[in-house]
Amino acid sequence: MVDFKYYTPTEVVFGKDSESRLAEMVRKYGGNKVLIHYGGGSVVRSGLLDFVKSQLDAAGIPWVELGGVVPNPRLSLARKGIELCRKEGVDFLLAVGGGSVIDSTKVIGYGLNYDGDVWDIYDGKYAPKACTPLGVVLTIPAAGSEMSDSAVITKDEGMVKRGFSSNLCRPRFAIMNPVRTFTLPPYQTAAGVTDMMMHTMERYFSHEDDMLITDAVAEALMRTVKQCGEQVLADPENYQLRAQIMWAGSLAHNDLTGCGTVSDFATHGIEHELSATYGATHGAGLAAIWPHWAEYVLAENPTRFAQFAVNVLGVPNDFKSPERTARAGIAAMVDFYHRIGMPANLPELIGRPATEAEIAEMAFKATQGKKITLGNLKKLDYDDVVAIYRMANKA
Amino acid sequence: MVDFKYYTPTEVVFGKDSESRLAEMVRKYGGNKVLIHYGGGSVVRSGLLDFVKSQLDAAGIPWVELGGVVPNPRLSLARKGIELCRKEGVDFLLAVGGGSVIDSTKVIGYGLNYDGDVWDIYDGKYAPKACTPLGVVLTIPAAGSEMSDSAVITKDEGMVKRGFSSNLCRPRFAIMNPVRTFTLPPYQTAAGVTDMMMHTMERYFSHEDDMLITDAVAEALMRTVKQCGEQVLADPENYQLRAQIMWAGSLAHNDLTGCGTVSDFATHGIEHELSATYGATHGAGLAAIWPHWAEYVLAENPTRFAQFAVNVLGVPNDFKSPERTARAGIAAMVDFYHRIGMPANLPELIGRPATEAEIAEMAFKATQGKKITLGNLKKLDYDDVVAIYRMANKA
User: Fold this and answer.
1) A178, A199 Cβ separation under 8 angstroms
2) Are A11 and B7 within 8 A, CB to CB?
3) Is the pTM of this model over 0.90?
4) Which of A47, A61, B246, B351 is a Cys-bridge partner for B141, taking CB atoms 3.0 to 4.6 Å apart?
5) Are B394 and B290 in contact (CB under 8 A)?
6) With contact defined as beta carbons under 8 Å apart, do A221 and B209 qualify?
7) Residue A14's closest CA among A244, A254, A252, A258?
């Protein structure tokens, strides 16, 4: 195991009555004037946005609002948010939505504490010193951004998608009411389940496989998410199932499942280009890539993939061959993706094979112009990434 | 499942090199003048205390010191610490040791922010508004106080042991170096393992048994601690085993394993009187009580005890009878306690049976003069507590 740090200061308020504590939490963390940041659609239709506003109004906390966040959130809207907050003297940011809204909010928080262009942080030109405090009312369990140190944003020009991680942007509080997730469509539910499992898998597939506590917790989490993910699609208003999934999404990305391991995140890096190029839903893109990444890197640590197959997916252990067990695990994962309505290759994701030109460009962008490698279990260069896209391109 | 809050702001620095970051962490959390609080013996002999002082000296951070904390820490020493800190203008408290030292430090932190007697907090006469910031250099994995909201203290007059919980006292940082635990004697190692398993068990045995994620994480944690606890006694300088146990001790009591459950803690309440009366090591006292508590309350939720037996202890499931499976689990737990050198009843703990007069007095004090009940799975009154002490009194 490797030395590690663990820091998850986000105060979680979880349950049916959690939203009634919103104004109290904003006050507790110093909010005097609030930006309510959101997407559109469901938070408006469900009445949640009005409820949030009424809670702040009742507490006498002034607010301004900015909607319009889209999946794979854009830098242009975050810049607009920074400008609005400066003009209005906002000192607290409230994200009402899922990962895209939260990430956009974090970017606004960074931007408010920097005189230059906030993209400088994503370009490696500036290391942020502060982030305006933010809170979350979560509506989509998936990205785990409500407790994570991560913020991913897409620059509109050239659709360049980049991530940046720092403890500065961890939300001060996260309000989670599983009832709000009852109406999530099946595709979005399944993509969320895929994303949270992948957040744990990205930390699990490591050469460091002697951190028993972390392994046991990670396997417990993945098993439970898989089981509840299948069940909830047939029973979408089951509070218990929705609650498991919602809480698992936070635990999967607040670093708990990475204590003592070296995380990989190559699948995330390879997927980001699918979102940018085809507008793919992040979770669905991950499902289209992972089986092929797994096949490509399996030889690096076959017993690890065998352990995953047996302990997470319930595949019978072929004691004579970790490789065979490992491959049976990858096949079981493909089955699982299909059962929950996720794709398991590129044609299933985008409706046709990717062209060779697209593959070349995505691999070029994913490796920042052949300048970086992705992942740790196996460090993947441009040629490796091309090979994985090609493997994923077969139906 | 029940609604829950989850708040674990402690910044953990874990690993072989963690101690070198001490001064940096003290500065980060605003320490300008530090009280170094400790017990004696091992932290002096091992050179850790000198190392801590040298780190602060090198960073130009002034400090004063107060040693002498004993197991089941005393109010009298905490009062002395409060006086010393006031006189010296201390603004940051550093606990170097295990649970007793950390708890004593928390009591000092409360006392520094209250003009009256700090025992008022434990007597229910005053609700604290603040606690001076504190950090931890952990040397004994057991109590989990390094991330918990709990502080237990014993009033010297009458040896009254009480606990108080509040987020105010959660440590700002915890430095954990498993190497520091290599020299822990077997009895203390085993008592620590027992304590951390019990922190999870106190949250696990609940009528709320539909929080699947929490159950899965709790079972994973208990299984791993049990396995590593047995192995480490034969291999005390095994870094990997010591690391699992050290990290598990924090996770077992930072509330992670209680999300969505209703915790019990009757065994803790019943044990506290054994520590106060006989000077028993807390973990050993827990082992002497738990099997009898379990037997006494089993009928409240037999399937829960069966699940524990199968999923944590590896007992074969008797599908025709959860009760039989449950009882086999209690027997397996007794076996485990004996294997790691822990007692499983009162005569094994104190070398003789307790007298009826002692039992009556302990039950009286545990129920605060027959005024409160203990636990939630079954609410135990004075007569119940007497019955459990009597069951535990048979060798």
Assistant:
1) no
2) yes
3) yes
4) B246
5) no
6) no
7) A244
Among B161, B157, B160, B178, which Cα is nearest to B12's? B178
Q: Provide residues of B within 8 Å CB-CB of chain A.
A: 1-9, 11-18, 210-214, 216-217, 219-221, 223-224, 227-228, 240, 243-244, 247-248, 251, 256, 259-260
CA distance B110 to chain A (A): 20
- ipTM exceeding 0.90, yes/no: yes
H-helix or E-strand spanning residue B7: strand B4-14
- What H or E segment, with its residue span, contains residue B187? helix B186-204
| Residue B88: closest CA among B119, B107, B56, B112 | B112
B159 Cβ partners below 8 Å, 6+ apart?
Answer: B276, B277
User: B358 φ, ψ to 5°?
Assistant: -65, -45
Domains and CATH numbers, chain B: 11-180 (3.40.50.1970), 183-392 (1.20.1090.10)
Residue whose token pair is 């009005």: A50
DSSP string, B33-93: SEEEEE-STHHHHTSHHHHHHHHHHHTT--EEEE----SS-BHHHHHHHHHHHHHHT--EE
Distance, CA of B260 to CA of A15 (rounded, Å): 9
Q: How far is B237 from chain A (nearest CA, A)?
A: 15
**Count of CB contacts below 8 A, A vs B?**
108
Q: Which residues of chain B neighbour A220 with C-beta distances below 8 Å?
A: 213, 216-217, 219-220
The CA dihedral of A298, A2, B178, A220, to the nearest 10 degrees, is: -40
| CB neighbour list of residue B154: distance below 8 Å, 6 or more residues apart | B72, B73, B74, B75, B160, B161, B162, B275, B276
Helix (H) or strand (E) holding B239: helix B239-251
pLDDT in tens, B61-82: 999 999 999 999 999 999 999 9
Per-residue pLDDT at B175 exceeds 80: yes
- Minimal-distance CA residue of chain B relative to A11: B7
Query: Three-state DSSP class for A95?
Result: strand
Distance of CA B309 to the CA centre of its chain: 23
Task: Give strand pairing partners of B137.
Answer: B96, B175
Contact status, residue B12 vs residue A6, Cβ threshold 8 Å: yes
pLDDT tens digit sequence for A287-335: 999 999 999 999 999 999 999 999 999 999 999 999 999 999 999 999 9
Within 10 Å of residue A166's Cβ, how many Cβ atoms?
Answer: 17
Taking CA–CA distances from A175, the nearest residue in chain B reads: B5
Q: Which among B6, B17, B219 has the least Cβ separation from residue A14?
A: B6
| Closest by Cβ to A3, choosing from B17, B220, B251 | B17
| b/e A94-114 (16+ beta carbons within 10 angstroms → b) | bbbbbbbbbbbbbbbbbbbeb
Give the nearest partner residue to B213 out of A5, A9, A221, using CB atoms: A221
Place of tokens 């000198």: B50
Measured CA to CA, the distance from residue A7 to residue A167 in angstroms comes to 8
Residue with tokens 């506590």, as numbered in its chain: A213
Closest residue to A4, CB basis, from B14, B217, B240:
B14
From residue B86, alpha-carbon distances to A100, B90, B91, B110 in Å are 49, 7, 9, 12
